[in-house]
Amino acid sequence: MYIGTSLAALAERDGGRPLQPLQRFQEVSIVAKAVLTISSKNYGSWSLRGWLLAKLANLEFNEEVVSPDDPAMRAEILLLSPSILVPALRHNGIKVWDTLAIGEYLNEVKPKAGLLPADAKARAHCRAICGEMHSGFTSLRSALPMNIKAHFPRFKVWSRAQGDIDRIVAIWNECLASYGGPYLFGKQPCMADAMYAPVVTRFLTYDVALDPVCAAYCRCIMALPAMQEWVAQARQEPDEIDELDAEF
User: Mean pLDDT across the stretch 119-137?
Assistant: First the structure.
């Protein structure tokens, strides 16, 4: 294309068909929708965290579901080994796995979503409790695995798992008192709420007794439209993992 050549001249050269530069630009610049790889919605706690983060960030994405029959997924769900397969986010040619990394990435590309608090002190606090959820509470995970479709009234919680529950309740009470609720860091849900959302489902499944403040927080999380969507789809899953459906 020579400098100074008009669009009309180019159109004439191309057989008289008028060019539509804006349309051409839009067609070229279209980016494929993000893809989030997850596992079972009934059992997959880390999948729930990644999925909820994407929802809270208002990211448009397609789901890619790995069957629980996949050996890597079964090992992940049964807490036998970690997996880098789920959750995993592909967005704009970038692949991010690990729930915390996905949350940090989404906070960068969707800063207005408020996944992390604006205040530096609150932001540091949020990252700290997210990190604690990410690396800790192993007794709770093993004794009370996520199982949305199940309900175990008067479930016996052993001492080590109860220690994890006590710590989580302390975290929630501190945050709700410090930042005014109804979510952990104020008026809108953030990364911390996504990280602790699977714990909320566990407390409901295993009939864990909570103080009124924490019980109200659980109701608030379960009332989120995204959580209602996840739970509804989890209840429709036909697949069951016998090891997680036994009353123990």
Answer: 97
